[in-house]
Amino acid sequence: LGKENYKILILARNPEKIGNSVQKLIDQNMEAEGFACDVSDSAQLQQVSDTIKSKYNTIDFLILNAGVVTPKLLSEYTDIQDIKNDIDIDLMGHIYSTYYFTPLLVSGSKILMISSGFGLVGSAGYSIYCAAKAGVVNFAESIRRELLCKNIQVYVACPGDMDTPQFEYEISHQADWMKQSSPRKVMPVKKAAAKILNQCKGKYKFLILIGSEIKLLNAVNKMLPRKIREWLVDTMLPRPK
Q1: Cβ pair 210, 192 in contact under 8 A
Q2: Which of 100, 126, 129, 155 is catalytic?
Q3: What's the predicted TM-score (pTM) here?
Q4: What is the mean predicted confidence (pLDDT) over 172-185?
Q5: What is the tens place of the pLDDT at every residue in 12-56?
Q6: Among this protein's residues, is 100 annotated catalytic?
Q7: Complete edge-to-edge strand list for the sheet that includes strand 59-64
Q8: DSSP 123-149
């Protein structure tokens, strides 16, 4: 986006990581600025949105990308607060951000929300993550319809596995029964980002599917009767014995 002459505004929790990211962009002759903010904290989001409004007035492209994954069975959670924390980041962060930053969007602006392939199906060991990511898909669809009259386009991307630190954490914390016998297809982040942004064009596009396995899953959901679909997905996805 920086190469397309956008000025990049980064919101994240860690000031040091923000500073490093901003400097990398500046070193490539791009304009960038960072703001320390936890998207699960509505008060922090409101404060940052007020600051951005006062400095820049409007936003052209709002991208909501915060997420966390905890691979475990629902019965393995020992603290209900851990469940709430995941929901707050994966779902409420999208809702809060949309609420506070949509007033800064104008006709022709865009919103991109990042969900997951697990936003299309429920998988054992990912119940909270799947619930939140499915919520993102339906929330995005609702917001798309709410903003049609303002000519603001909304997209939601459902990528498969990408080579992020989050993916590394997920794999390292999986139970044995969750590990697949064959290696999972992992897409480089830059490739996934390019594919997603390339599809953020046109007025009638909404759902962006990244990865052949995600496209297959979506086709299965659409085309097969529920009983057959459930049998097929049961055989594809790992589950506890």
Answers
A1: yes
A2: 129
A3: 0.93
A4: 84
A5: 999 999 999 999 999 999 999 999 999 999 999 999 999 999 999
A6: no
A7: 59-64, 105-114, 153-159, 207-210
A8: -TT-HHHHHHHHHHHHHHHHHHHHHGG
